[in-house]
Amino acid sequence: MKKLFSVIIALCCFALAQAQTPIAMLNHGNTFTSYYGTNALITAYNDAQDGDIITLSPGMFNGVEIRKPLTIRGAGMMTDTAAGTLRTTIIGTYKIHNPDTALPMTFEGLYFEGGAYMDNIWNVTFSKCYINSFGAPFYGGSGIHNGNFVHCIIPSIRTAWLYNCHFNNSVVAEGVANANWFQNSDGSTILYNCIIQLQSISSIDNFHSYNSILLLANETDTTTSMVNTCENHEYCLGISGHDQFFHPSTYLSVKHLINYSWPNEAFGNGAPHFNRDITTFTDYNLMHTVYNNAILVGSDGTELGIYGGSMPFNPRVNNPSIGHITVGGQTNQQGQLPVNIQIVNE
Q: FRET label pair with 297: which of 3, 196, 200, 339, CA 20 to 30 Å apart?
């Protein structure tokens, strides 16, 4: 249930200006410290110690090179009218690095507007985040190890630097045409109930997908030939405008694979198109559970794609987050300035 809390804070006029800017709250043990302005995340990060939590209000924050195992939470990766929250946006291009194999790093409810470079990241979780792009490791780094992505949208990602990484109910896409960005993984990348947008047919060689929907770019006109690679995919729907996605036919019955020619066969007339710009949030609900005698359900009997499985896609954050902040127009008789900080707790 959503809970709202109001607090009365004695502030000067200068604090009035601060309260209308983005806020970062650093939680270290039982101590809470607030920071204000677009550089609030940078300042909070500099003061943070391993294992601390930084909670961000809605608004835009300058990014910072993250090299500590922290938890960073935002209000969400999209404006949520029902929850009364606005998007928390991290701007700029920066590096993420966590060589500590014992302490985890967690990001939740954030819209990463710029690109992020992977640089030896261990034990990281991204939950309900929009990540504009994941670039190559910096300084010869080795990418992401033991990563989890839940309810995320990533328009540009390369699996060559993902090791033992799992995706659940997320939308992911290759960012460069004919670059085979999903091809060079060591095979430990696994996607469950995902939407996977590919630019090259050879990209599916080395990752595994289950109960997912794979869309092949319509500008890819090479005849599909995946005699061996279909073993990596089960209970999946493949959509290709030029040829059947999954081959040969013997794999279709064993792995419960389904071929479609166009997105509207699966999603209806309002279907997402090939090469779709997924900077916006798209409805990927299937139009049918049965079509042309094909059963469009996963191994657990739920819908294929991001709305199936045990945790259907929902961009709303789970943890308490800072919602709207409103400040009274004048102080009261005690010289206190009323500040209403809306804490949303689902």
A: 200
* 9 strand-pairing partners: 337
Rounded CA separation 123/50 (Å): 14
How many distinct helices (H) and strands (E) make up the chain? 4, 27
The 3-state DSSP class for residue 80 equals strand
Pairwise CA distance, residues 173 & 53, whole Å: 30
Structure tokens at 253: 């019955």
Q: What is the pLDDT along the chain (346 residues), one digit of tens a residue?
A: 444 333 333 333 333 334 458 999 999 999 999 999 999 999 999 999 999 999 999 999 999 989 899 999 999 998 877 666 689 999 987 788 887 778 889 999 999 988 777 778 889 999 999 998 877 666 566 788 899 999 999 988 877 778 899 999 999 988 765 566 676 567 788 999 999 888 776 667 778 899 999 888 765 555 555 555 677 889 999 888 777 788 777 777 888 888 888 777 777 766 655 545 554 566 788 887 776 667 788 999 999 999 999 999 988 887 665 655 555 555 566 555 455 555 555 5
Q: How far apart are CA 257 and CA 250, in angstroms?
A: 10
* Global pTM value: 0.84
> CA geometry: angle at 227 spanning 223 and 228, to 5°?
130
Q: Break the chain into its structural domains and give their ranges.
A: 17-308
